Amino acid sequence: MSPSHPYCKFSLAQDKTNVHRMYHDTAYGFPIDTDDELFGRLILEINQAGLSWNTILLKEQNFRRAYHDFNINRIARYKDPDMDRLMSDAGIIRNRLKIQAAVYNAGVIKQLQKEYGSFGAWLDHHHPKTKEEWVKIFKKSFRFTGGEIVNEFLMSTGYLPGCHSEDCPVYKKVVKAKPRWLLK
């Protein structure tokens, strides 16, 4: 039986070495346990705005390198030379507003870490919420976080359901990993 979710159907039809297939099978909807990786996913989702997810997946390693493995403490200290370096890096999306949002958002996450212990703890503190409630919370705190970015970030990190259909072979693996959306 073919999965009913369009992304599942598309991804599973790809070769196992395809970036969509690898992302679908190993990352999409699985919980992320470290703040740097959560932040990295947020950076990727923000950079996807207006572009294809394929572009982002193909550039993911470049983003990791350019943004110092998504190290929140380091990114929060970025200054003009770092902005210039990122703007000249053809391996990533060169958009000044998105780069500035990453630096600003790293500072926000550092503050949340002081208040809640971690970015993940802040997310857990607010869970469960509807997509609309999450969007309001994100818009109060972060930059460049519209409805689709927040929705995809939260689905892709296991806070909102919807990444996989129940008939997708990866669905059971995601459930076994105990995503937050299972905890009501």
What does this protein look like?
This protein is mainly alpha-helical and 184 residues long. 61% of the residues lie in helices and 0% in strands. The protein is built from 11 helices and no strands. The chain has helices spanning 6-12, 19-26, 35-48, 53-66, 72-76, 80-87, 96-116, 119-126, 131-141, 147-156, 171-176. α1 packs across α2, α3 (35-48) packs antiparallel against α7 (96-116) and α7 crosses α8 (119-126). The radius of gyration is 16 Å and the shape is globular. The two termini are 30 Å apart. The mean pLDDT is 97.
Q: By helix and strand content, what is the structural category?
A: mainly alpha
Rg from Cα:
16 Å
Q: Name the beta content range.
A: under 5%
Looking at how many chains there are and whether they match, the oligomeric state comes to single chain
User: How are helices and strands ordered from N to C?
Assistant: HHHHHHHHHHH
Q: Total number of β-strand segments?
A: 0
Low-confidence stretches: none
Give the helix level as a range of percent: 55-70%
Question: What's a quick, concise take on this entry?
Answer:
This protein is mainly alpha-helical. It has helices at 6-12, 19-26, 35-48, 53-66, 72-76, 80-87, 96-116, 119-126, 131-141, 147-156, 171-176. The chain is globular, with a radius of gyration of 16 Å.
